Amino acid sequence: MNRDRRYIGAIDQGTTSTRFFVFNRNADVVAMHQVEHRQHYPQPGWVEHDPVEIRDKTYDAISTALRTAGIQARELAAVGITNQRETAVVWNRKTGMPYGHAIVWQDIRTADLCRELAVDGDMWGYKERVGLPVSTYFSGPKVRWMIEHLDGLRADVASGDAVFGNMDTWLIWWLSGGPGKGVFITDVTNAGRTMLMNINTLEWDTGMCERMGVPASMLPEIRSSSEIYGHTDRDGVFGAAVPIAGDLGDQQAALFGQTCFAAGDAKNTYGTGCFLLLNTGDTPVQSMHGLLTTPAYRIGDQPAAYALEGSIAIAGSLVQWIRDNLGLIEHSAQIEDIAREVDDNGGVYFVPAFSGLFAPHWRSDASGIITGLTHYAKRGHLARAVLEACAFQVKDITEAMEKDSNVHLNALKVDGGMTRNALLMQFQADVLAVPVIRPKNMETTVLGAAYAAGLAVGFWDGFGELRSHWGKDRTWTPQMPAGRREELDRGWKKALGKSCC
Q1: Cα 81 from Cα 412, distance rounded (Å)
Q2: Are 274 and 315 in contact (CB under 8 A)?
Q3: What's the first-to-final CA gap in the chain, in angstroms?
Q4: Where are the alpha helices (DSSP H) in 242-331?
Q5: Judging by beta carbons within 10 Å of its beta carbon (0-12, 13-18, 19+), is residue 69 exposed, middle or buried?
Q6: How far apart are CA 291 and CA 399, in angstroms?
Q7: Which of 297-301, 305-309, 329-333 has the lowest mean pLDDT?
């Protein structure tokens, strides 16, 4: 056991900001600092980040958190990282400079390319190998686009000077020394979001690399989610050699932070969108109902755990939309109070298919609609419809998961900002007919990265000790009669049908 150091550090590199946390042995937060970075929208549908800015903001978050808390780097047993998945960076291994901005997971510039890559028009044609549909969401098509469009990149790819990584790889490379010294790795959860890793072997798939037009020479070494990859550079932001020992994509990190270690355990993160993951054990389960098959985590040389994932594009962002575009509320937190002005949705349904319908429907021809409006409808009914849209979408995904896995959900662990909305959480429990459980520690994503790093260096004993840190803050139990639940579900599915052209 490594008991000579007092803390674990963890980086949470997200879509809009980077945070650095320090946890003690009880998994309590003892320090945190957050720094936002800019969003770049050079064309409609394009979303970019400056990777150099994110690197520097990460350094700022680390140094400020440690300085403010009076913690020395030598007191850290290890550092872990969790990151926005699928956001692609390509840089020169000799200079460390990127060839352009990172292409963010939300970016859709590769839509035409993805149609070309589909197998006879079937976007699921590679799922047996990669577990994913061909989509603008994933990193591989983004890298192909950069090779074809960024000045000088194709020549440097040919010479072996150009390399690719998601944000985890980029930051770990710099933290461990950068040009000439940096550790060039990723973990199975991030590699599994590229469309280039074979989910059965957990290695880069040569055939997929050739099909995607991304040479394997550009790719980092795939490692587990919890092991010592290297150490921070003594001349860098930490000023000491701290083991870098945990690496998980953000949604897998949240699953790990929620201690969903057994097959059948599930969590849902309610944020800008919703991300529901179900642990399916040590065998990948191929979805027949529109879900993603993805590595959940791998601890050292143990077998990997897998998950089924359903991603919802519009959840909390719908609340922001009615605030900013309709002016129904002034602050997002007001949505619950307004929704409580009425007892039900009054027959009003809101389908937020602003970019089509994603899992499990995958209907790009769908559009957002509000249906069921009558003279009876009030602002409270619309507010309820906004919240209920989130819960109905989660129900659609859980139904698909149960069909795919033959595992019946017996409870749902939840995290994210929208879980502060008690009305939404109660409605979620009602439509799922299972308890919804919110943990005491809401920082489950970054906590998952800390747990992975801590396990690798013996800071924590194992899953049993990690489970002991998890505690319930509140549980919502189903209260809705089955007949009413079925009536509401029929109304939602009817509204879904109207949203599709």
Answers
A1: 25
A2: yes
A3: 60
A4: 250-257, 316-321
A5: middle
A6: 11
A7: 329-333
Q: Is the entire prediction scored with pTM above 0.90?
A: no
Taking residues 421-435, report their average pLDDT. Answer: 95
User: E-strand spans in 76-116?
Assistant: 76-83, 88-92, 102-103
Q: Which pair of tokens denotes residue 474?
A: 């509140």
- Per this entry, what is the length of the chain? 501
| Better-scored residue on pLDDT, 4 or 403 | 403
Which overall architecture, per CATH, does domain 7-241 show? 2-Layer Sandwich (3.30)
Whether 7-241 shares its CATH topology with 259-439+471-501 is answered yes
259-439+471-501: CATH number: 3.30.420.40
Helix (H, G, I), strand (E, B) or coil at 412: strand
Q: Nearest-CA neighbor of 270 among 385, 352, 411, 391?
A: 391
Q: What are the angstrom distances between the C-alpha of 216 and each of 202, 204, 470?
A: 14, 7, 40
Averaged pLDDT, 274-293: 90
- CA 251 from chain center: how many Å? 3
Domain boundaries, the chain: 7-241, 259-439+471-501
φ and ψ of 402, to 5 deg: -65, -35
Q: Which DSSP letter does residue 356 get?
A: B
Buried b (16+ CB within 10 A) or exposed e, 284-296: bbebebbbbbbbb
Sheet bearing 29-36, strands edge to edge? 29-36, 17-23, 7-13, 76-83, 243-249, 226-231
Q: What tokens appear for 404 in the block?
A: 């795919």
The predicted pLDDT at position 2 comes to 47
- Three-class secondary structure of residue 469 per DSSP: helix
